[in-house]
Write a structure and sequence with these properties.
Organism: Oncorhynchus kisutch
Order of helices and strands: EHEEEHHEHHEHEHEHHEHEEHEEEEHHH
Strand order of the largest sheet: 5-4-1-6-7-8
Pfam family, one: Tubulin_3
Largest sheet: 6 strands, parallel
Number of helices: 14
Strand content: 5-15%
Helix content: 25-40%
Mean pLDDT: 86
Low-confidence stretches: 86-91, 124-143, 581-588
Function: Involved in the regulation of mitochondrial distribution and morphology. Required for mitochondrial fusion and mitochondrial network formation.
Keywords: Cytoplasm, Mitochondrion
Number of strands: 15
Distance between the termini: 44 Å
Main location: cytoplasm
Structural class: alpha/beta
Radius of gyration: 24 Å
Length: about 600
């Protein structure tokens, strides 16, 4: 295929989804190139971003994004953003009578946001030289490439672990005024008016909330020439699971020929949780998963939890990451890195796979739930070859579960998409001297795709799969958390000798990442366990308020039955038959 740009509209539904989305958009922004003479990159940025113009004539480049959250979730961020100032004085008053003014103290900005304000005002650190040359794409009054270079040259080391309260505390890009949608019916903080149940979320998508979402969708869609679909990031644990179910249903009804790829997000822990809320989470997981899977091209849970049941295992441990799973700022950065790689196939400039084809290759015979795995980073020594790196993994695949679903390890898989990103400057094939015998089969192959495909085939023989190699890495710019071990060099490759503790000369600025998206028999017992956990709960007795705003008890029970049937689709003896609600029930 050529370089035809197939646009995507992204929707982020819920606070944790916006955490992951903020890191993800920061990663995309860090990879943008504003030099008109630079060769085009491997990824087509216009798939995700749109060009616009402010009232002052400045060219802007902003995400094609709708982000929904609750009242009180924005803190220092203005809902309409700061790109498209109208020039009107918001304090202008025509009333001639007495006026009483009440001032509310504004939330405090952290060091990163204060520096961004200085950049926008042209007050950046004195040691940096300014280049007054205008740039074709700007994220506001200052080109974001300039922001990147100035922050990096200033060697700013932000430690935001103690100051990040909401996702806007580390957002580095400007958003379009049509992007942020605040749901005023429910509060982000406090005990009252919380969006806690699936039924509350389902009931939201009507009236003004529905009209507002439709207006925003139409704005972004109408300017697309070749819309390929939607990627939806949705919180699973709270009422956004119900809202996401209705949103994906609306997208399916209105844009059924497009791809709808839904990523269900769940943090490892919630700061204000209680035993009753944990039961709500389990019910929301179950209902949200079955409904969003039904309405989407595929549904992939993304979480660092050890499981979605009542007694989850420990979060996955990555050999070269030092992250705190309980910190949303940390866990969301790990998932965003994975998502940056998982979404590569339908963002490529050349030979991209449209979203609907990408989903169809995985979601076969009704198996619409897929699982993600990732090696973050991909363990590779600086200067070694890809065959060497894969050979060092021996018989153990280097990735960890990113969907709370461990692999079975039996070599069975219905379909798989593997992406390796970021081996720029490294050798993809073995550099053998003439006459030297290749130590392994991998060392005898002629290109990187063959090397990776041969490695995957050895672990998953007779399994349909695709591989993608992208040389450009995930670029890490402030304020991405420095959660990396001392064994990694600046480009994210392993060093032969790690520096002494606290002696790293500079931060990790890029990272190689290996990810896998699988339709696997492992999802069968995983979904069955989720079904059993939810089925043992009688919401009328232990959580009567859960059904107070819907769904009806019969609908609730029918959804759990659909979850049970979905689990049966992943049995190895299913024979590839399409799963249907009319199948006879039998044991898990």
């Amino acid at each position: 295929m050529g370089s035809l740009c197939r646009e995507i509209v992204t929707l982020q539904l819920g606070h944790y989804s916006n955490f992951v989305g903020t890191h993800w958009w920061n990663l995309q922004d860090a990879s943008l190139t504003y030099d008109p003479d630079a060769p085009p990159g491997e990824l087509q940025n216009d798939v995700l971003f749109r060009e616009g113009q402010t009232f002052g004539g400045h060219i802007t480049y902003t995400p094609r994004l709708i982000a929904m959250d609750l009242k009180g979730s924005l803190q220092t961020l203005r809902q309409e953003g700061s790109l498209y100032e109208t020039g009107k004085d918001p304090t202008a008053i025509t009333w001639e009578g007495n006026v009483m003014v009440h001032k509310e103290s504004l939330p405090t900005k952290n060091s990163f946001l204060l520096d961004l304000d200085k950049l926008d005002k042209g007050e950046i650190l004195a040691e940096v030289d300014f280049d007054p040359t205008p740039v074709p794409h700007c994220s506001g009054t200052l080109a974001m490439e300039t922001v990147n270079s100035r922050l990096e040259r200033a060697q700013k080391g932000y430690r935001l672990e103690g100051s990040v309260r909401v996702w806007s505390d580390f957002l580095r890009i400007h958003l379009h005024p049509r992007t942020i949608s605040v749901i005023h019916e429910y509060n982000h903080d406090g005990e009252a008016h919380r969006l806690e149940t699936f039924g509350q979320g389902e009931a939201l998508l009507q009236g003004s909330v529905l009209e507002d979402l439709e207006d925003r969708l139409h704005f972004f869609i109408e300017e697309c020439d070749y819309l390929q679909g939607f990627q939806v990031l949705c919180d699973l644990a709270d009422g956004f699971s119900g809202l996401g179910s209705k949103v994906t249903e609306m997208l399916q009804d209105s844009y059924g020929g497009r791809g709808i790829l839904t990523w269900g997000l769940a943090p490892v822990s919630h700061p204000d949780t209680t035993p009753m809320k944990e039961l709500y989470h389990l019910l929301n997981y179950s209902l949200g998963m079955v409904h969003m899977a039904n309405n989407s091209s595929f549904f992939c849970p993304l979480t660092l939890k050890g499981g979605l049941g009542r007694r989850p295992a420990q979060p996955p441990s990555f050999p070269h990451l030092n992250y705190d799973p309980s910190l949303w700022y940390h866990s969301s950065s790990v998932l965003a890195l994975a998502l940056d790689s998982l979404t590569v196939p339908y963002r490529l400039r050349h030979n991209s796979t449209p979203m609907w084809e990408f989903a169809d290759a995985l979601a076969v015979s009704g198996r619409k739930v897929v699982a993600a795995y990732g090696a973050l980073p991909f363990p590779m020594m600086q200067g070694c070859s890809l065959p060497d790196a894969l050979g060092d993994c021996a018989d153990v695949l280097p990735w960890k579960p990113l969907s709370a679903c461990p692999e079975l390890g039996d070599g069975h898989c219905f379909g798989q998409s593997v992406t390796l990103k970021g081996l720029e400057g490294q050798s993809l094939v073995s550099q053998l001297r003439p006459g030297m015998q290749p130590p392994t089969q991998l060392h005898s192959l002629d290109c990187g795709e063959e090397v990776l495909a041969s490695y995957i085939n050895a672990h998953y023989p007779a399994t349909p799969f695709s591989v993608q190699l992208v040389s450009s890495p995930s670029k890490l710019t402030p304020p991405f958390p420095q959660i990396f071990s001392q064994s990694l060099g600046p480009q994210g490759f392993l060093q032969s000798q790690a520096p002494p503790p606290k002696k790293r000369s500079c931060a990790v600025s890029s990272l190689p990442v290996l990810t896998s998206l699988q339709s696997s028999p492992a999802l069968g017992p995983w979904l069955s366990e989720l079904h059993r956990g939810a089925s043992t709960l009688d919401p009328r007795r232990i959580a009567p308020s859960f059904l107070s705003q819907g769904p009806e008890l019969t609908d609730f029970q029918e959804s759990l039955e659909q979850l049970h049937l979905l689990a049966r689709c992943y049995r190895n003896d299913s024979g590839g038959m399409m799963c249907s609600s009319s199948e006879e029930d039998d044991d898990d």
